[in-house]
Design a protein that fits this description.
about 120 residues
Length: about 120
């Protein structure tokens, strides 16, 4: 019986990433990031409720550049997840499934998330 070196089923290395797949995976990842980021928000609120010393200690941690970078990413995740959720609501009406509209709406989602993130950090 001859053996082939070919894979038995399609593999991720065979295909290049499609925008639709990347956006779907990103939507799931941003959901996880929002859950983790919410724990940071809870930490900050508990520290504020615990008193001035706890709040100062929490602020010292949250003022580091690494945490601010993570908060910037959390802000992007928030806006991306929101915009993509609105896109999914539009799809729930039965519209927007042709390939051109799917790609256009995906690019709009990423663009809006980036713009809203930058505006939030400029204004705040």
């Amino acid at each position: 019986m001859p053996t082939d070196n070919r894979p038995l089923s399609p593999h991720l290395q065979v295909y290049r990433p499609q925008l639709t797949a990347v956006l779907s995976i990103t939507h799931r990842l941003t959901g996880v990031a929002l859950a983790v980021g919410t724990l940071v928000l809870v930490y900050w609120l508990v520290a504020a409720a615990d008193g001035a010393d706890s709040y100062r200690a929490a602020q010292a941690v949250l003022d580091s550049w690494l945490v601010k970078l993570l908060l910037f990413g959390w802000t992007f995740a928030l806006y991306y997840h929101l915009a993509n959720g609105l896109r999914h609501l539009y799809w729930d009406t039965g519209n927007g499934f042709d390939l051109e509209t799917v790609y256009l709406s995906g690019k709009i989602v990423v663009g809006m998330a980036a713009i809203l993130t930058v505006l939030t950090w400029i204004i705040a």
